[in-house]
Design brief:
This protein is an all-alpha fold. It is 55% helix and 0% strand. Pfam families: HTH_28 (PF13518).
Length: 101
């Protein structure tokens, strides 16, 4: 059975690494060309040297912000917390923090 084809993200990362080796020979110039930081480049290089193509796992199907989203219970309590803060801070509207609606 053949090795699965790498996804687009892995192909991009491999292209960046190859560009340094085969074209420019200069990591800083390659990073500017591809619009990435040198730290990102060296992270990719370190993972590729340690794990090969498996160092670039396929992206997950979960959007990046989904894992950090607050739970529903916390989100529902935010308006209550803001209204409590406004009720106890009598200078709220005087400082220009009125509701814009």
């Amino acid at each position: 059975m053949s090795e699965p084809q790498p996804d687009r993200q892995a192909c991009h990362r491999l292209a960046v690494l190859r560009h340094v080796e085969e074209v420019s020979g200069n990591a800083a110039m390659t990073c500017r060309y591809f619009g990435i930081t040198r730290q990102t480049y060296y992270n990719w290089l370190r993972r590729y040297e340690a794990e090969g193509r498996q160092g670039f796992p396929p992206p997950t199907s979960i959007p990046a912000g989904r894992a950090r989203r607050a739970s529903i219970g916390v989100t529902r309590n935010v308006p209550r917390a803001v209204s409590c803060a406004r009720a106890t801070d009598h200078g709220w509207r005087e400082r220009g923090h009125e509701h814009a609606g």
